[in-house]
Amino acid sequence: MQNAHEIDFKIYGEEMQYVEIELDNGETVVAEPGSMLMMDEDIEMTTIFGDGSGENQGFLGKLMGAGKRLLTGEKLFMTAFTHTGSGKAQVSFASPYPGKIIAIDLCDYDGKIICQKDAFLCAAQGTSVGIEFSKKMGRGFFGGEGFIMQKLEGDGLAFMHAGGYITEKTLKPGEHLRVDTGCLVAYSQTVDFDIVFVKGVKNVLFGGEGLFFASLIGPGKVWVQSLPFNRLADRIMSKAGSYGGKEEGSVLGGLGKVLDGDGW
Question: Could you tell me how far CA 245 lies from the centroid of its own chain?
Fold first, then answer.
């Protein structure tokens, strides 16, 4: 018997997407605080404490669930949206930065997906949002996400978000894929994930790709993003002090500031 609420959805947009969740009476979806875009008047919003599964965990269980969320860098509370009226009602959740929303039926992956810390957007109630500790020292120290990653468990729909274009790779048994550590979004629990060193002194010193790769060995599914948020933020910050005014996008470049009198 399925524990998670059965919800319908539709994803809108291209680079800045949002997902519209359609709920029947009594159905609930849980989401990260601040992700709600719009909702019908029959939707009731409630702040909840715990891992979002909706199970009767008691205060200690809810405290432990909330504490796990803090370890992954998420907020202590989550928000539940329940349809309390008749017929159907919609509630929508927006992506926090340019990228794609990924819909995942956890039943297709034996009830569990492991993802980067900030990937979770929303899910049908009954989905648990917890932590996944790395048992491998190299992955923990150098994996970009540390020892702790996020895990989504349950038997319903969950939605993740990541930056840029999202590629889904299905690995066959023994098939090996190497990914930039910051570009790995999520993987199914059957995938063997570890960290490997970049080979070659010149590659390490001058390659510009970092010192480590994420090593993923099948079987299983892997999700990869083309534009991690930290890479986007670094580019914006590095350019913020270098460009501005009339010379932006001009062949004159920084010379434009001098000609305008700003460079003196």
Answer: 35
User: Which amino acid is located at 225 in the chain?
Assistant: Q
Structure tokens at 8: 């319908």
Confidence of residue 242 (pLDDT cuts 50, 70, 90): low
CATH classification (class only), 8-161: alpha beta
C-alpha distances in Å from residue 148, one per residue of 117, 131, 140, 263: 8, 6, 7, 47
**Alpha carbon distances (Å) from 222 to 95, 177, 216:** 20, 9, 8
Between 210 and 39, the more confident residue is 39
Q: Is 56 helix (H, G, I), strand (E, B) or coil?
A: coil
Strand 28-31 to strand 77-83: parallel, antiparallel, or no bridges (unpaired)?
antiparallel
Q: How many residues does the chain have?
A: 264
Higher confidence at residue 176 or residue 145?
A: 176
CA dist list (Å): 90 to 28, 81, 101, 106, 196: 11, 10, 17, 22, 45
Residue at token pair 């018997």: 1
Query: Residue 32's Cα: distance from chain center in Å?
Result: 11
